[in-house]
Specification:
Elements (H helix, E strand, L loop, with lengths): L4 H13 L2 H8 L3 H15 L4 E2 L5 E2 L1 H24 L6 E7 L1 H6 L1 H11 L3 E7 L4 H8 L4 E5 L9 E13 L10 E2 H7 L1 E3 L5 H10 L8 E2 L3 H9 L4 E5 L10 E7 L3 E7 L8 H9 L1
Parallel strand pairs: 3-4, 3-5, 7-11, 8-9, 8-10
Antiparallel strand pairs: 1-2, 5-12, 6-10, 6-11, 6-12
């Protein structure tokens, strides 16, 4: 089997862009060149790798090959960066949780816009658990990891922020200087919004209490809506303050908990050169 780099680049570009036309624009080649490259790749691997239609997507075979294709391209890009250093230019995919996307990335993107003007940072939003999974699978090139057990080699701590209680502005608890977990449980804890459940669990462990909740949701917008309707209270990172509706307030929680945010590339495969550039520019 002989697979070429243009074939791999065309395959990955189609999956990322969602169409042959968009992939051709991203690669700076004609659509016929992309179609030809993918057709050749499919002959080599013995089956279709993309579904043709209104929105191109990977087939089951394509899904199995996608991570390997990304790893090969990342390795080649890293090799070329060593032997032919050039100004940082291109697109890098960065994953982050909602509160980081809203409260931290705008500041980082301002820095990168100045230091890396020719780099386009594409943001992928997900939950805490999805960050390392996407990073190691090659779905993204870099990620802001939340409370990693150890800081990955080459990674850098970009922020630390406290967990805080969120209640309605007219709630009796809003007048207190700080709240305890017992205070929050009396009103019903809404857990899980924005992927912060792990931190809330650790806060309970430190307080010697079992982790419990009245409601468990996925989206922060759902959580904020429930609090606004008086259906409970919650705990979120202080970076989420920029997402807070005006009728909700944040208050300190005791015992406190501070989460650590680490910008890093993958641990199991070579870093994309632009992932290294993002870290070096911070």
């Amino acid at each position: 089997m002989t697979v070429s780099l243009p074939q791999l680049r065309a395959f990955v570009a189609i999956v990322d862009a969602g169409s042959f036309t968009a992939a051709a624009l991203a690669l700076g080649v004609g659509q016929s060149a992309v179609s030809h490259a993918v057709a050749g790749f499919e002959r080599e691997v013995g089956g279709p790798v993309v579904l043709r239609g209104a929105a191109a997507a990977a087939t089951p075979l394509g899904d199995r090959l996608l991570g390997h294709a990304r790893s090969v391209l990342a390795s080649v890009d890293a090799l070329e960066a060593v032997v032919r250093p050039a100004p940082a230019r291109g697109t890098v995919r960065l994953a982050a949780v909602p509160t980081v996307c809203q409260g931290l990335l705008p500041r980082l993107r301002e820095v990168w816009a100045v230091t890396l003007p020719d780099v386009d940072v594409q943001v992928y939003e997900g939950d805490d658990d999805e960050m390392p999974e996407w990073l190691e699978a090659g779905t993204v090139d870099a990620a802001v990891l939340v409370d990693p057990t150890v800081v990955p080699d080459g990674g850098i701590v970009v922020a630390q922020d406290e967990m805080a209680a969120v209640v309605r502005r007219d709630h009796p608890l809003a007048d207190l200087p700080a709240l305890t977990l017992d205070d929050l449980h009396e009103d019903g804890l809404v857990a899980g919004g924005g992927g912060c459940e792990h931190q809330i669990q650790r806060m309970h462990e430190r307080a010697g209490q079992p982790f419990r909740y009245a409601h468990r949701v996925r989206e922060m917008s759902t959580m904020f809506g429930m609090i606004q309707r008086g259906e409970g209270v919650s705990i979120v990172p202080t970076l989420g303050r920029v997402m807070l509706p005006p009728d909700l307030v944040m208050l300190p929680v005791t015992p406190g908990y501070q989460r650590t945010l680490v910008l890093s590339g993958p641990s199991s495969r070579p870093w994309h050169p632009l992932a290294r550039a993002l870290v070096d520019a911070v």
